[in-house]
Amino acid sequence: MQTTLKLFLCLVLLITVSCNKAKHQTLAEHTNEQHWSYEGETAPIHWAEIEKNSDCNGHHQSPINIIHKDVDSVRINNDLKVLYNPSTLIKEVENNGHSIQFDFEQGDSINYKGKTFYLKQIHFHEPSEHRINGMIYPIEMHLVHASKKGELAVLAVLGEEGEESQLFEFFESFLPLENGAVKDIHQKIDLSSLFLEDKHYYSYGGSLTTPPCSENVNWIVFKEPIVLSVEEVLKLKNNMPINNYRNEQALNGRIVNYHY
């Protein structure tokens, strides 16, 4: 009788351990499945649900649709100084599963409203995330800068199809790149060819357009697009998720300034 009881208790313990293990595996698998993406149940519309500790349901989110007639127009002053030089080095390129991202070594920077922001990385969205008067562009390039205090300033450059771009030819010379792959570069790049200091731009306070959607971003969206070829657009597109853009977010009373 005592032996039978011991066997019964051992069986119960074994079943309990197995069930708990299976439960934890199921929870882990479920958690892995819930990583944000651009489609299905983990698409942008669900980010606030699956990214619990994020700002994705905040009131100062990005991107936005910029309606030109509603902006506050101001003369271009010294708010933005683009301090790019030809000796800056690209450190590496990565396919992070969400975009193609080029990371930079310290060199290029901008001065915005009296603060210095250092260029950290460039990545791409197809089609564009920001809209101007409802117009969606084939591509949007984000040049992400950070201050020493962790504040962010992102230059958003829209792209339209036309002539071939030498800059994009250089970027794409390191492609294709498989999902998760990283490639060392350590080569010079001259971003002054973008001529950003000559362009009109919109500015507003917003967020990252990917989780955690942090609302500490100074957005500078250039009105005039750059030009690149259809082939260059498609090559980038083939190395990224289809439609890797976030949907338009509500302005919620924010002021958009137009610098001309």
TrEMBL record:
Sequence ranges assigned to domain Alpha-carbonic anhydrase in this UniProt record: 34-260
Cofactor dependence: Zn(2+)
GO molecular function: carbonate dehydratase activity; zinc ion binding
Enzyme Commission no: 4.2.1.1
Entry-linked InterPro entries: Alpha_CA_prokaryot-like, CA_dom, CA_dom_sf, Carbonic_anhydrase_a-class, Carbonic_anhydrase_a-class_CS
Keywords: Lyase, Metal-binding, Signal, Zinc
Keyword match Signal: yes
Enzyme category, top tier: lyase
Catalytic activity, as annotated: hydrogencarbonate + H(+) = CO2 + H2O
Signal peptide positions (record): 1-22
SMART domains xrefs: Carb_anhydrase (SM01057)
Keyword Lyase part of the UniProt annotation: yes
Family indicated by similarity: Belongs to the alpha-carbonic anhydrase family.
Protein role: Reversible hydration of carbon dioxide.
Name assigned to this protein: Carbonic anhydrase
Species of the source: Seonamhaeicola marinus
